[in-house]
Fold these 3 entries.
Entry 1:
Amino acid sequence: MGVSAQDIRDAATLLDGNVIRTPMIKSPLLSRHLGCEVYVKLECQQYTSSFKARGAYVAMLGLDDKQREKGVIAMSAGNHAQAVAYHAEAMGIPAVIVMPSQTPFAKVTRTRSYGAEVVLEGRNLNECENTVQKLIEERGLTLIHPYDNEKVMQGQGTVGLEMLEDQPDLDMLVVPIGGGGLMGGISTIARDMRPDLKIYGVQTEAYPSMKLAVAGQEIVCGGETLAEGIAVKKPGGVTLPAIEKNVDDILLVNEQQLEWAVGALIEQQRVVSEGAGAAGIAALYAYPEMFAGQKVGVVICGGNIDPRLLASILNRNMASDGRVARLRIDISDEPGMLAAITASIGRCGGNIIEIYHQRLFFDVPAKLAKIDAVIETRGTEHVKEIIDDLRKANFTVRQLDDADKN
């Protein structure tokens, strides 16, 4: 039957007062950096920090009394899991959530905190399917699918409705795609409201499942990705036709671009996003010529990122743009060498974060040693200034990268 624009408007009525109408704001710093006018839809500020709260609510509202009594089941890498668990607790419905075994601890803990039973199984969503089917047969549970469900897609589509109500003069929409529930719904309502609008989906290079499906090609994907929320191997049967009909193109981004986007949202907009949530910003970064000078609406679809992973990304981004550097300095093993090094770095305005005085683990004469200094700088030119000053002080210096082991 498919999902219509009117279905999405009806879903918006059901959701009124039951989910947050999240902000749609302009990002001046991102706009300046990316060369286009960037408006971000902050679904990372939604209940359970993701757009999934919309579709889960609409789907669960349609359950009959027997289904509510037996309970619901969902398979999810985290965001849909939390949404189903959150609404199930509010509605008094038992909930079982099957999650991939490598799901970040923060998402597992949050899901359990809503009272759901969590089952960890497989390495991705598709490997969870057998477990889900077995539990449905054993307990009579009703599946709330994360994307291949018309009511879920109706709820997700309300994101696009709000975006175009709040900013009706957008030139383009950029939306992350996993199974396609969000993009299927958004593209349906957007085509109805603005037939001339350019609509782009975003997937990772490791999981281009929807892009391949639309092209009629064999789906081959897999591997580790920062954007586990859109790491889906099989597109939805409900969502694929809507995306084929309404989406202009699906863009692919790599892991480095995703890392940059997560860091840029923190530093330039003070927005916490997971990898999948930042995929739209990664696309603007990866394809600047496509978006140059345009008004672009980007869905930041989720903010559930593991704190340790976020810290690692921020540090890696600082290293990649030269704000944190590792220098290896050859010295003679005698008093005063370390003081001379720190004086040189301080004279240039560098900040020493860590310093390692290595004598034992390098193939050097006994009277020589090496200093590894981790320093905070203003950027690549500042690093060069510090290195030049150390060399003027007669030290042998080289900058290390992640590939250096010795």
Note: The radius of gyration is 25 Å.
Entry 2:
Amino acid sequence: MEPRINLFATATGTKLAKRFAGLNTVLHQSTLPKTVIELVSLRASQLNGCGFCLDMHVKEAIAAGEDPLRLHLVAGWRETTVFTEAEQAALAFAEEGTENVSVSDETWANVGKHFDDEEIAALVCLIGLINAANRMAVITHQKGGSYEVGAMAGLES
């Protein structure tokens, strides 16, 4: 399937993309670990089948120094030994926040063991934003494979 529209070629799409990029900057300025941001973004994008976002988050994570092995294992994180307890809590939170209307009290409590309120706020917003970005890219048939590291950072101005 070919992309249905290039949102970045429209005035409205460009304005919204700049705001999304600005929100991403706020997330990266938070105390939430950058690794967690990319792992959560990657897992939600896997669940939503968003090739564009998978491409972007894998490349951005590798550029930031993430071990490619860990990225390959995100889909099966429960069956691995490469993620910290905090990362596992964030991945469970991302999965429930992506697949369900809410998250269980158990998952919420587990996230609270590893992250403070500021980081939890960032996680909640991150999960909402990545799911919105995934849906826009999937609806418009955006393809993965050609993303260049840092491309979204250029939208922030």
Note: The radius of gyration is 15 Å.
Entry 3:
Amino acid sequence: MILSTFLFAVANILHSVIQIYTWIIIISALFSWVRPDPYNPIVQLLYRLTEPAYALVRKILPKTVFGGLDLTPVILLLSLHFIDLFFVRLLLDFASSL
């Protein structure tokens, strides 16, 4: 009972973190289209939050730029969506079976 509740809580928190980070990636990608002031604190925060994940994707898949369009945010969004659908759901199913 306690383990099941704990796993439900972990799965829900993980789902929330994935959703928040998804929005951060979307906002960062939209900002990259308009070239905002790089000294703006919000732009710097978005850069610090997204660039490590972008660097990891670029390290695994070095060819992510096609025709001047960087597909790293799309790849990252698809990966996060897969993790949310597969692993979080798996964790929830495991918790409900306990």
Note: Residues 2-97 form one domain.
